[in-house]
Amino acid sequence: MREGFFRAVSTAEFHDLLRTFAPLPGETAGLDAALGRVLAAPIVAAENLPAASRAAMDGYAVRAAEVFGATESNPGYLDLAMDIPIGVIPEQPLPPGHCARIVTGAFLPAGADAVVMVEYTEDLGAGAIEMRRPVAPGDNIMLAAEDAAIGQTVLAGGTVLRPQEIGLLAALGHTRVAVGKMPTVALLSTGDELVPAEATPRPGQIRDVNSHTLAAMLRQAGAAPTTFALVPDDLAGIQAALAEAAAGYDLTLLSGGSSVGARDFTLDALRNLGADILAHGVAISPGKPTILASLAGKPAIGLPGQVTSAQIVLLIFVLPLLRHLAGDPAAFDRAVRTFPAVLSRNVASKQGREDHVRVRLEDRPGQPPLAHPVLGKSGLLKTLLMADGLITIPADLEGLAGNTEVAVRPI
Amino acid sequence: MREGFFRAVSTAEFHDLLRTFAPLPGETAGLDAALGRVLAAPIVAAENLPAASRAAMDGYAVRAAEVFGATESNPGYLDLAMDIPIGVIPEQPLPPGHCARIVTGAFLPAGADAVVMVEYTEDLGAGAIEMRRPVAPGDNIMLAAEDAAIGQTVLAGGTVLRPQEIGLLAALGHTRVAVGKMPTVALLSTGDELVPAEATPRPGQIRDVNSHTLAAMLRQAGAAPTTFALVPDDLAGIQAALAEAAAGYDLTLLSGGSSVGARDFTLDALRNLGADILAHGVAISPGKPTILASLAGKPAIGLPGQVTSAQIVLLIFVLPLLRHLAGDPAAFDRAVRTFPAVLSRNVASKQGREDHVRVRLEDRPGQPPLAHPVLGKSGLLKTLLMADGLITIPADLEGLAGNTEVAVRPI
């Protein structure tokens, strides 16, 4: 691992280092809290969904064979056997030659295998119903067990729970589910020039921007970061804060210390605490001066001090790590969904370094948007404010030509 | 408005009806709570950011003109005037012929206009510093007021606050900001067949799926919906619940009542409460039986009872309405970011109706993913569970051919 000191590792190598941290043990969550979380165990249906066939339309439950060939000009006729209210299983089967009036969601009587929509029927009175359209078996009904059958694994372990999975869990009565624990995150900022955002800086001081920006990104990703008080930019201060963070939190992020001296403090503090330094430097721009350590067996990441660089490192490394720790088996492999745009001009890039370039999008009717590169110093907020997205220039390219189609990740 | 009863309105018309509801009055929020919200008033900088020029790299602050032409083979030499610590404004200007040692983030002394990176210098001892690279004025520094100048409007009213805007607000000391109020949402479910997800259904009953699915979607969008107890599926029950919801919440959503009879109860209850029915039916599929009313001047939406249909109506209408009420001036115009895929086979669609088709994506290396249409009854959860995204077939098309490039919205 010592080679980590001497060369910047690639994005893929950094991801591999992050993978060495084991996902956190699972916990039980209610349905509200389970949204966005990762299933820790498969869900097996203990009942059929639906329990029996249900109408998907208002109309008449029929035997499809008995309305075979019915048309507007040559309708079929059935006798009305019953009205089926919603919320009960009909006790009587449907007698041959009969139909049953039914509303959407109601359960079909035994014998019925389809529903004729009400708009293709006419109630002629005296219990006679005219059918003007044929149906095939299964038409306009939800079949018994079509959503889930007893014993079927309906959700695999590792599934990320979207609203529709929450719906399925509700349907099956799984209102408490085993999910991966969302990591707790300690967010530390260091820098002797920093004052809290609420304070009025004296000349030479600046307000702490990174804590707020990074906390917001973590919050968007579903984490609830704990922001520590500003850490004094010296070995003792950084070491004490790192020790406290690693003792109490699943993931420690230390922002700031972008100067060589401050980075040295971070490395020395980590070493003094017995941490294993896994990487010191990553071959991306911005974001190179990133430190990864295993501290008390937990990940600790020294982020670059420039806010723009720290944002990239969060997007590319920390957010996937959060999902990995939370139990997502595909956390580092999940394709980031991007949308296409056309680069407005050439962008140069250094070979051997993966470049993440901010772009401002100009929407164009009927064409993919134009992506204007937003270049500028990574210590400035301005470039981030102007940007709508990010494009990645792989390490093996020397840049991208204007008019190239690029894949944009929204930020 | 009465025509709303007789024809299904288009998506654009429905959006126009939603626009008639005024955005909610603003409120003040702390930075954490302001994330994702909409600025209610412009932010004007009361100070310069940075207050003075700052180093963007570790190295030596110089007058650029004094290292003009310096190279490895023909270096320049400057005398070291001072070490500039971080967190103070240097009191002395930089004397001619001198440089000042500086770390990233520290403020430059008066007279200096660039930083030579430390790796292109050598400390020769006795106060002599060798410079091996030239710099241009402004190199490796963040200029005074480059992020914000006193009096400048740095964020316009109506801006949606992302992490980077939160960072700028922190930098300027705006830790309490005026933002649009996030609407409170009452989520009502009706249906005599429904029992809460925690309950064991008797034969014929089913668990309430929609409340959980829709609440999860609303929560993802930043709202905190209040789920009412299940509403009895009769006129009195629906009317009482609607009255309570409209009195206490900014937006009322009533899910269920997908049968003709139940829809009639909803319409009758709204009329009895003096509501203005703005639309009854929208020309989309799924999602047609949607009701929009103005109840006590607030929007009330009757959602289709099928969970799939309700999800589409939430995506296309309710989520933009939330943002509109929360103060986003572009809520209905903001381009939904989609990504390209290739349709795996033909999909038919009825002209005059905007179709929203669920698709399952198959990733392919080096090519856009294949989008497999997931067809099936909209009362089933299965199609939603299998789907990764949605494609829209405009009302004027009769379908899309296989191999067509389509724009996929992730779900």
Walkthrough of the structure:
The structure is a homodimer of 411-residue chains. With 411 residues, chain A is an alpha/beta fold. Chain A has four domains: 2-25 and 182-325, Molybdenum Cofactor Biosythetic Enzyme, Chain A; 28-47 and 154-180, Molybdopterin biosynthesis moea protein, domain 2, CATH 3.90.105; 54-142, Molybdopterin biosynthesis moeA protein, domain 3, CATH 2.170.190.11; 339-410, Beta-clip. Chain A contains eight helices and 28 strands. In chain A, 52% of the residues are buried. At the A-B interface, β10, α3, β15, α4 and α6 of A face α3, β15, α4, α6 and α8 of B.
Write the layout of secondary structure elements.
The structure is a homodimer of 411-residue chains.
Chain A: H1 11-19, E1 26-30, H2 31-34, E2 43-44, E3 54-55, E4 59-62, E5 76-84, E6 98-102, E7 114-117, E8 121-125, E9 128-131, E10 141-142, E11 153-155, H3 163-171, E12 176-180, E13 185-190, E14 194-195, E15 206-207, H4 210-220, E16 226-227, H5 235-248, E17 251-256, H6 260-272, E18 276-280, E19 284-285, E20 291-295, E21 298-302, H7 307-325, E22 339-343, E23 347-348, E24 354-364, E25 367-373, H8 382-386, E26 389-393, E27 399-400, E28 405-410
Parallel strand pairs in A: 5-6, 13-16, 13-17, 14-15, 17-21, 19-24, 22-25
Antiparallel strand pairs in A: 1-12, 2-11, 3-10, 4-6, 4-7, 5-9, 8-9, 18-20, 20-21, 22-28, 23-27, 24-25, 24-26, 26-28
Helix pairs in contact in A: 1-7, 4-7, 5-6
